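Q: My labmate handed me this sequence with no annotations at all. I'd like to see what the chain might look like in three dimensions before we decide whether it's worth expressing. Could you predict it?
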Amino acid sequence: MPQTPLRPDAQGKVRDIYDLGDRLLLVASDRISAFDVVLPDPIPFKGEVLTKLSLFWFDLLGSTVPNHFLTADVSTLPAEFEPHLPWLRGRSMMVKKAQVFPVECIVRGYLAGSGWKEYRQQGTACGIGLPPGLRESSRLDEPIFTPSTKAEIGDHDENISFDRAAEIVGPDAARRLRDASIAVYSRAREHAAERGIIIADTKFEFGTIDGEITLVDEVLTPDSSRFWPADDYEPGRAQASFDKQFVRDWLEAAGWDKRPPAPTLPDDVREATSEKYIAAYEMITGQDFVPEGAPMPQTES
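A: Here is what I predict for the chain of 301 residues:
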């Protein structure tokens, strides 16, 4: 165990970020957030699953849109990281720096979550009119782009209209982000369907590198997407899932008011969530999940 913990230059809900000059080191922790609050208990192997699945998608989708990935080989890290390689291995990746857009790029292919709640009340999803008669979990005729703001830790993301996104990033950038998001989602949805998984919706982050729209951060993981088993899919009800909806459901059943501090997760919920994440990885990639790294020290988060 390293005697001196690494101190990230920035920290998100899940990721720790280290500034390496012209590059960044992204480290996926085992932390989990729900309702924009970081929970107190880690999910076993979660960081490795997020990293390995993102690397799979970056490779598969590279011809659809450029991404920021450089390498996951920890032997290329600067010398000060050497004592920490056992737990960095498998959960970290070096990436190019990008100018990140200040909006979340959400694509919905099915009617679920906040989109379903709004549709029941107004017949719209994030302000976009939808046909009458849809049911919970209905597949949409075409995927829709429903951006949101980026919240600070502890705050909530807020759905915004396309026009509002255009005001924030500019009309041309908003159109490019919409088109790139739908293209990436559509390609990924095709692949996942062949593997028995429905990607109901997902959230992307984009930036620019040398003026080019570039996919950054994680991509199409159980943290950023709703994954449903295709063999159990049935419109008109909530679906079983491979993502952190399992944790959200437990928190809501526990009566939590969705404000920090969050309650402690029981061990069986943590283990079951880990199993769901690993199952999603294995189904999507067709590969067994083999942990590479040591558990991440809790003092690092």
